[in-house]
Sequence to fold (165 residues):
Amino acid sequence: MLSLKLRTLIDDFEDFFLNAQEAYRNPGYPANNPPPAFGYSGGTAVGTASVLGPYDIATGNLVAGDNIAAVIVNQVSGGSSDTTFGYELIGTVDRFELGPRLMISRDGKNGTITLTWRAGSGAQLYNATTADAASWSLVTDASDGSYSFAPSGNGGMQQFFTLRR
Fold:
């Protein structure tokens, strides 16, 4: 990731966390009561929220896989009723790498199905019985770049496959 930027639409204050590390703090936060301890007191109230930024966000807290973002939004006082919150994260990447492509073929004589992909790609084959399965299983007997199986006869169960790196 080359850069990560944040645009905000906030009334009154916010503190942004990325993977449990503070990544951005609204400059209106009261200096004597820093987040996350901040409650309803002090700071500079926002009359009407407007889009601000973009602000640079350090990419050092990003991890491979899922990243968790969290925000604390506060008002200038406990009686304030105009809470507004909106974020836009803008990521600039240096390149997109196409993942390995899964190809399928069927042997006309014996019906064996063969799935192939580029060997050495680091991809692993997973399967499930539904396309929207909550849990997919690693196909442990797949080689690096191919997997063959004989589909079951009439009334057999469907199989769905995906490659993951």
Observations:
- The longest strand covers residues 3-11.
